[in-house]
Amino acid sequence: MPGTLVHRAAGEGSGPSVLATRREPLRVGAEAKLVDGRWTVARAIMSRSARILMEGWVRVPADSF
User: Fold this and answer.
1) DSSP per residue over 3-59, as a string?
2) What is the tally of structural domains in the chain?
3) DSSP state, residue 1
4) Is residue 54 part of a domain?
5) Which domain does 12 fall in, by range?
């Protein structure tokens, strides 16, 4: 999303980026569009790894549905 820190850190490009890890580089990216003033994520891109890299939660506002 233009204007965000992640967008700047990714080089402000439009394709997948490479996330460096200790063992192997991983391709990461996302496809998001601004629709009616709201960001909509169509897909997320991440190459496979046999190791657990992260875990977490995503909070989605109830009025999003």
Assistant:
1) TSHHHHHTTT-SS-EEE--SS--EEEEEEEEEETTEEEEEEEEE---SS--------
2) 1
3) -
4) no
5) 1-48
- 55 occurs within a structural domain: no
Statement: the pTM of the whole predicted model exceeds 0.85: no
- Residue 52's CB is within 10 A of a number of other CB atoms, namely 6
CB under 8 Å to 61, separation ≥6 — which residues? none
- Lookup: tokens for 61: 């506002």
Strand ordering across the sheet containing 17-19: 17-19, 26-35, 38-46
What are the residue ranges in the chain where pLDDT is below 50?
A: none
Q: Read off the tokens for 56.
A: 């977490």
Length of the chain: 65
Burial 10-46 (b: 16+ CB within 10 A, else e): beeeeebbeeeeeeeebeebeeeeeeeeeeeeeeeee
